[in-house]
Records
---
Amino acid sequence: MTLLSTTVPHLQAAWDAHPYLLLSAPLVLFVFVSNVKSYFKLRHFDGPFWAHFTYFWFVGRVFRAKMLDTLQELSDKYGPICRIGPNDLLLGDFDEVVRINGVRSPYTKSDWYTTIRFDVDGGDSVVSLMDTGEHDVRKAKLIKGYEGRGKGQDKGWMDKVVDKQLVELVRLLREKYVSKGRMINWTDVMRYFSVDVMVEALMGEAWGDLRTDSDIHKFFSMSDYSVPYIHTVGSWGSLRWLTSSWWFIRKAGPKVTDDHGLGKFIALAKEEVSKRFKDPESKKGDMLHDWVAQGLTSRECELDIVLGVIAGADTVAVPMRTIFLYLITSPLVYNKLKDEITTAIKTGAISEPITNQQALKLPYMQAVIHEGLRMMPISAFGFPKRVPPEGDMVCGQHVPGGTDIFPNNLAIQRSKKVFGDDVDVYRPERWLIENTQGPEHRSLMVRHIEVIFGHGRWQCPGRMLAWVELNKVFVELLRNFDFQVVNPRDPWKLAVYSSVTVHDFWVNAVEARQE
């Protein structure tokens, strides 16, 4: 009683003098205990000092859009696996990344995926759907349409979809820019091309961004501010539960009453899906037609159409811009590719427009594309997977269950063992079969590139359409025009969160010289 009688007055005096200090004490204690617990969970993994205790280090790097340099530095300093957060590891080992993402892997999605939720009514796209079984069922219904094997899609369906927009692209460049000697904002025209291809493939009719040379629905204006947000918040494990909650999405998410941006597109998707379910045969051959036939609900169709444009538009535009910059700033490469295209035209090896199958038979163009993807992956680091409860051995070290593992795509594409000592040099010649260690080695190189699009059950369903776009666009551009960068000293504004964003990429073009 004596101790209690003397302690209570002291506590009362402290409360009267500093009430907020006493109230904050439990919070401080909780944070301290949590940090200590987090540190010990992954203490056997090297990494930046502050990454052992807090997300501030990782979030700060992502927010500043400097992940291209950061990922290289981490790989060089700590090797194939390192710690980047209290519960997060970064993995740059190709074989381990492939294993973790395999079809039969016990790994699941990290709750990072919930940051891609956008539906105010509580629905999930195939990407934000967290249950693995439900994900597999949904993806199985989506995949035929994405790969051009769906109802009403003939063998040349992807060629036809891309060709239609290639005609618009060439027309736009020739009539509005080349003939008038005007500079071209390559950031915009590649965006317009990729989004019109994606919308055409999904719903049978493009928005017309290329035709009007404008961001009709302000879709990319939305993308410019949402990409930094998604990747920054996604890197902050403690915040995901809030920003991905249905309460938060209802308060801050897109509304179908919006007159632009994602809300506007959701409204357009709802309208088109409603028409199809009333008359499924009103349009044939696009992805939506097949999805209805596969038995997806109207809500599932709406959500995955919106996801398709979000994931497939600007994402494909990124390699079209980055490969193009490497190409037009490398005269030897540029001229060699032009010669290959010119020879193919003269010998009748390619049609106009070129088909995907014809493009696959142009070895140097394939080398240019693969090398560009290697130098600047579509995503610098991939989406994280969660270690199963029993834990796992990764790179010879035990990883506790519940840990999130991010694939370091950049490090995988900089493997000296696979690509040679000059991995930081843009050199398409490394992909020519005579310069490799044989077909098996080149196949290994290709598999390294393909992991950029995910692997196994988590592989991007739109990768085939993306490849068709890449295989065709550079041939048609160089067949018709010659290009140069406007400002060689500062050609673009580059920002790398996980996704890569490019702005103010200006080029000049003239009609190609006919030989």
Note: Residues 19-41 form the longest helix (23 residues).
---
Amino acid sequence: MPTCGPCKVSFLHFRPFPVTIFTVIIYLALFIPLLIIHYVPPTPPPNASLKESIGVDLEDTWRTLAAITKKYHPYNSRANDHVRSFLVDKVNQIIEKNGNNKSEVIEDNYVNVLYTGRTTVKIYFESLNVIVKVQGSGDFEGVVGDVLVNAHYDSVSTAPGATDDGVAVVTVLGLIDYFTQPNNTPRRDMYFLLNNGEEDYLNGAMAFTEHPLAKNCRIFLNLEGAGAGGRATLFRSTDAEVTKFFKRAKYPFGSSLSGDAFKQGFIRSQTDYIIFDGELGMRGLDLAFWQPRARYHTQWDSMAFTSINSLWHMFETSLSSLVGMAHDGSYTFVQGSGRKHTGVWFDMFGRGFAIFQIADTFIWSICLLTITPFFIFGLFYLLASSDKLYLLASSPKSNGPLPPKLELAGCKGFWRPFVAILFSTSAVVGTALLIAKVNPMIMYSSQEAIWVCLISLWIVTSWFSLKIANWWRPSATARTWSIGWISFIAWLLLVLNAVAEDRLDVGGMYFTIFYYMATALALVFSLLDLFFLPPTSHIYDSIAHADPLEDDDHRSLIAPSVDHTNTLSPDDEESEPPNEQTSLLRDSSNLGRGRHIGRRPNSHGSLSIGAASSLPTIENNEDDEPSCSSTTLCASRQYPGEQYWSRYLPRYTWLLQAIILIPVPVIITAQIALIVGTSIAQTGADGNNPITAYILYAVFTILILLPLQPFLHRWTRHIPLFLFFVFVGTLLYLLLAFPFSWNNPLKVYFAQTVDLRTGENRVHLVGVNKYIKSIVEENIPSAWAPGADLVCKDDPLRLGLQRCSWPGKMPNVVPGYESKKWASVNATSLGEKDGLKRAKLEVRAKNTRACRVNFEKNIGKWIKNVDIFDPTGKGKTVKHKSEGKDFGGPVQQIRLWSREWGRGWDVVVEYEQNEDTKAGPVGVVECLWSDANDGGIKALEEIKSYLPQWAVVSKLEDGLVIGEIPFATEKVKEI
């Protein structure tokens, strides 16, 4: 009779080749669409179709973007006035085209607001906002509140502002076009605010708070740009109720984690959203572009680096949300209604959108944390009651005389998942910290390589550790124990989520809910597998039917090996298939009844069902399984080397476990990982610590790949071997490659100061410590000129960066005048009033509408009140509602903004008289020039011309050129 040879098992069995192929396909099927959605905005329908369906010409809207981004147009520039005039004309043309005589264009040229910016900074700002009112049908009873749509039309002084905030501005024009059409009249009144001055401390939005129309608005949509292109993401929302409108979008994109990052201060920059939410108490959404930040606030924030697809994505999501807002007839958003709950939300593959109230997710978390463990413990109890708890049983139960001790070895494999997780986590975190130490800025241009490196490393280290453990002590319970450990880790993360929801009112860790649900459900199915096993007492029952063992004949009951020196007898071939009554001391597939092979006592002389056999179990091909011609016998085989009783386990449930365990956690977590990774990759240029970013990369790598671990020990060696070389290659690249490129340039920050008394000037360039000095020394001609006096030191404005300063080319910001005539300040005493001393500062400056008054530190703390007056007497200053008679703190700086050129300001301060103030206020006036369009700022032009191609310049302060004049009270100083 021939010996048994190998036969192929079903492709769906838990074998190396099927497991490898199936799990790899699952991950690729999830990663590929997530990457496409993350990086590629949706394509708009044909323009003719859009004009027919919604009446908006998207191509004309795109051409409008070209018209407003021809030049840099900050508030303090002549180009800003041209953009404003163009927008007013465009809105009037739209209204006239649609024949809507109920719409109104309001040019706000009269609101002057004085308010507190930072604690020690007072800001006076004169509005140049444009407001468009579209009257609704009003077919509801009572007052429900109006809808506000906001975008700012100013740019920074170093960027054309295509996405910050040009795309948003032309989107607003498209929305005005839609809602002024006769067939699209909204139910609620709508206000479209094009504000001016957002880039200089959100001044335009703050001025709107003092406009009479502001009190009517209850819902808002803010459109912003914090990156240059890509998809528009929902940055944050005030509550769950208003977020439901975003669910209407065809291509929603975003996660509430970003809102929590703002709330907890991890993101320090702000948008107009905080004005409408905090100052006006409105409820709404913050929709913004967010990647890539390398071009943000630079000359590359232009139409060349955005697309009509990005415009379409912002327009479609905005229109869908606003249609819901404008036609909502509920009283949910009436001030004081009380129906406001923190929202937890996220998109699903960029096509669906989930929204929950944080109170509901908290209850959900608590239920999962408490009920699910009891249910799992209940399954353990049922397994123990039915004598099938192989996971924890050290030896079978016996109902008769005790035979030699037998081991089930079900606990074998308990610690290996934890050790593998610890080993792979340490490797990933250590590698991330190594990159952060050696080449921290590489994430600036190569975040994809970081993901590939860390993912490859985690898979290789986990596979290697699990494979070694499986070779040393094979175990059929490895998958179940691994799922159990992952579920326990997910339970701990869910505890953190519940604490954050309860104590911090943030739901950004919502992914832990779905993570734990998936892992717990997979664990339940793993435990249900054990119910298919025979009771452990069956082992002893089988011994009674076996040949007696000699004292020194210790039989291994795990995976009997193929004995190629023996053949099957006819009796063996005709034997019945194994069943629950078949003796476990019998090799039911290869050997006759009672045959004893593979004798190998364990360390304490017991009969082991979990120890490895002393003979080979399978042929060299690990994808094959020893079998006979009988398919029944082949199918009943356990995996070679694993416990004999595992042959009774279902062979297909691993597929169900993989489908439950992998997709949901990976989808939810990978989406957040991509958003977080992209958001932080280029923040190093702002002075942020890169270690935090690399730790986050490592953490999300681990969370994404943990669901793969229960199946890794079955993987073939081919993919881990390939990934090992991928890891080595990417690690060498990340450690050695230059971190910047033309497509991902390092951002450096420019300013120039001029002493208006002497004409001396210094150019300042701020950037990352490791690179900024070499950039200046090796590339900027004026910095290496004789007597350049280059000085580099830590920057006081941008912590974590270095400032290099040197004498530069004199700017020509006031043509035809020498620097002494650019600005003047007169400080005179006005006597005493109501127990306070008074002083007047007359600040005048040519060709600018922005100055700053800086008081000496010991002076500012005694100032109790500030008033700003228009020297022409035409305007009236309105103190913001938060400004009382007593400012309640030191006034170190007053920022002055005028809507008119060269007019100036009269500043009256009231202060307590004491030893510090007996001579009156003392300080420095700084006047700002921000127009870089005509080449008047020669030092900036030089830097733009000579910077290496892997660097790009942005503004450091509100002004590109800062002219300084000291002042002292009662001394008239005209320069």
Note: Residues 533 and 645 are 7 Å apart (CA to CA).
---
Amino acid sequence: MANPTEPLFFSEAIVFLGAAVVAVPIAKRAGVGAIIGYLIAGIVIGPFGLGAIQSVEKIQPVAELGVVLLLFVLGLELNPNRLWRMKSDIFGLGTSQILLTGFVLSGVMILLGLPNTVAIIGGFGMALSSTAFAVQILKDRGDFSSVYGQRAFGILLMQDIAIVPLLAMVDILVSGGATHAESSAWNQIGITVAAVLLVIVVGKYLLSHLFAILANTQAREMMLAAALLVALGSAALMHWAGLSMALGSFLAGIMLAESSYRHTLEADIFPFRSLLMGLFFMTVGMTLNLPITLAYLWQIIVGVIVVMGLKGLVLWLLAKMTGSPNADAMRIAVTLPQAGEFTFVLFAAATSTGFESDLFTVMSAVVILSMIMTPLVGKAYAAYIARRTVTGEREPDAAPEKFDDHAPQVLVVGFGRFGMVVAQMLMSNGLGVVAIDNNARRAVQARRLGLPVYYGDATREDVLRAAGAEDALLIALCVENEQVMAHAIELIKQCFPKAKIFCRATDRAHAVQLALSEVDYHIRETFESGITFGREALDQLGISTERIVEIETEVRQQDLERVVLDSESDAAKNSEKLKETTAPDKSKKKSAVG
């Protein structure tokens, strides 16, 4: 029992962190992934395992914040135009999947002898997949931005939206189709529409101004506080309206997807999202009722096979019918066959009205085990494809095309006068370019002109990663601050070694530093503009073109010699400093020996 003077959640936090630190590395080493590690850790420490955590209900609201922040970050990655392009997947494919899977699973449950009402609630509940599980799996595979990944995400979005009519369906089934229940459903739909419109209006017209004010204060913690406030505030509004909290934070993220701050917000939120997502997966594992699971083990195993098999079949069939190649349809089928977290919401709504709780407890075990099995099914499918490749058989369809709108070929750091010209040169040739600048006003002005410029700090690995440094072929450092550039060069070499580094040198001394840093290319803008200026002046004074070329060559050669001398001088100074720092140690050793 916890000490009464102990801070709230203190002992629980230690247990959760300890379990994660032990379980996740073991799961990763075993090749089953972090999600399985979190789930098993939850089962072990939960009330039906070792009992280290007794009250799951206390922890669950905190854990659900992980899903909220996950959807907020996903919203940042999907601008409204791109979401509109997904409308057929969301409303067409998503709606078809929910209805067809719901009717099929309900029919099977009725044939197995379950009461009609329980079968309908159970069937449609298990038609919903787990947004948290499926998105995390897509992220781990690096397939979230693939064609099949976006189609799968469209289905998940429709499932999140469908929770409102499905909850209304439970009310209608309980009340026998009473007029009051139908009236209540229409009221709920009206409240939902109003809440969605409020999030959209506030996000579109107010949030960018708020973040512009905070960015100008240079208080990084305030940017983080504002990001959490926006994500959690929109989630709370949707929860009040009866929708999923995750959908609210997702809409807020979409509204900020076209702002200049999306990469910084994504980098700030990431650590909280990752830890809370781990906590969410552990709480799912903790809810597995081991005594009931063991008592009905064979029925639950058969239920998992039937649910995942039929749901996967429906997903594959619908994806094929709506234009996906066979390989993509199979990937969607093995990504979304599990039941989801909103299934528990429907089951809880049903049991609160007097339905037999034991039936829904058994169904809940099927839901949890289907989640546990999903990563394993995905790995089995990947192993099958790999074996076919090794034996000379190839997949019937090519690898999925990636279409991440913001994956740059070149990342430009610093969008002042120099960086702007560099970006224009690159974009004129059709190259994908993303730029970041730590001047919020400059980034906002550039965005208004339609340029891909975002607010961000080049000395932060998470910001560079969010801006696409990992996929960039070249990173152009066009900042004026030499310390910032030196830090960025070190960071890029360590974390993004594939990218070539091009640098703007402010003067000869800086050029020497860049040469010693072994960047791929550097240029002194003042030297080059001085050369051009001098060449034009000689031409106006009537000097022949041949002589101008000779003079330019001589000046460049003399400058190069000075750069070499300066480099050697700096190297000698560094060597002397090294000798000075090591000399006392040597003298101590000699005296000790003597």
Note: Residues 545-593 form the longest helix (49 residues).
